[in-house]
Amino acid sequence: MNYKYNYKKLKKNSPLIIFIHGAGCDQTFWSLLNRYYFFRGYSTLAVNLPGHGDNNDRGLSSIDEMAIYVGRIVKKYSSKNTILIGHSMGSLVCLSILANKLVDVNKTILIGVAYPMFVSSSLLDLSKKDSKNAIINMIKWSLTSESKLRGSHLIGLNLPNLINTTMNKTENGILFNDLNACNKYLIEKSELEKINTSILIIAGKNDIMTPLKSSQNLNSLLKNSNIKTVDNCGHFHIHEKSNEVRRLISEYIEI
């Protein structure tokens, strides 16, 4: 197994943040947050799941397999204070890690999470037959009108182009693989209710891909979670509303 990730160690006892990307993306999705928290006292580790970014291994077909993969990496860099942050599919990977107790985690942040994370049959079919057009459609649905028109709060960033370029770097067939894994992932309600780890859910008010209502439903099932809503935000929260999302994360992890 080829383990690929961007790991920045600050010092031996520094808290560790693990970033897990969403479907069709890679660790570069987290570049700004990775850098931001490293320079504020955290060791950071952004994972490239198999088939994503520079990880040329065969893609994993289930969320649980992805969770095991991430868990093995995390165990190599044990910390007394470990924080998981996942976006979309990555948030399901976080849930699987917690539900199966794969590693000790202090806090978890789920960004753009839906549970269940059902994917439309039309998008699944398109991602299998024509991933380039599937990506174009996903970007169209994921971004708010404001984000499409004005881009990101990050000066000079062409957000649709950035997402398109990143997602087209994944191995052929990986997007379908990811979306299908999300679509099939289910946990027993009783297992969700057993998760004791502190969880923050960050939801975009205008997110079509993982609707606010679905995030709220998950929040009601978890015993130790809280949900924060970001206005005028679609599915790519950390780029569309970077300052607001960073503020919510920082308040939660108390820096």
Folded structure, characterized:
This protein is α/β, with parallel strands linked by helices. It has one domain (4-253): Rossmann fold. Helices cover 44% and strands 16% of the residues. It has helices at residues 31-38, 63-76, 89-99, 121-129, 131-142, 145-150, 159-167, 174-184, 189-193, 212-221, 237-240, 242-253; strands at residues 4-8, 16-20, 43-48, 82-87, 107-111, 198-204, 225-230. The protein has a 7-stranded mixed beta sheet with strand order 1-3-2-4-5-6-7, with helices on both faces.
CA radius of gyration is 17 Å
Instruction: Please report which band the strand proportion falls in: under 5%, 5-15%, 15-25%, 25-35%, 35-45% or over 45%.
Output: 15-25%
Low-pLDDT regions: none
Overall CATH architecture: 3-Layer(aba) Sandwich
C-alpha end-to-end distance: 35 Å
Q: Shape, please?
A: globular
Percent range for helical residues?
A: 40-55%
Average pLDDT for all residues: 91
Supply the key terms:
globular; 12 helices; Rossmann fold; seven-stranded mixed β-sheet; 255 residues; 44% helix; 7 strands; alpha/beta
TL;DR of this structure?
This protein has 255 residues and is an alpha/beta fold. It has helices at residues 31-38, 63-76, 89-99, 121-129, 131-142, 145-150, 159-167, 174-184, 189-193, 212-221, 237-240, 242-253; strands at residues 4-8, 16-20, 43-48, 82-87, 107-111, 198-204, 225-230. The chain has a 7-stranded mixed beta sheet, sandwiched between helices.
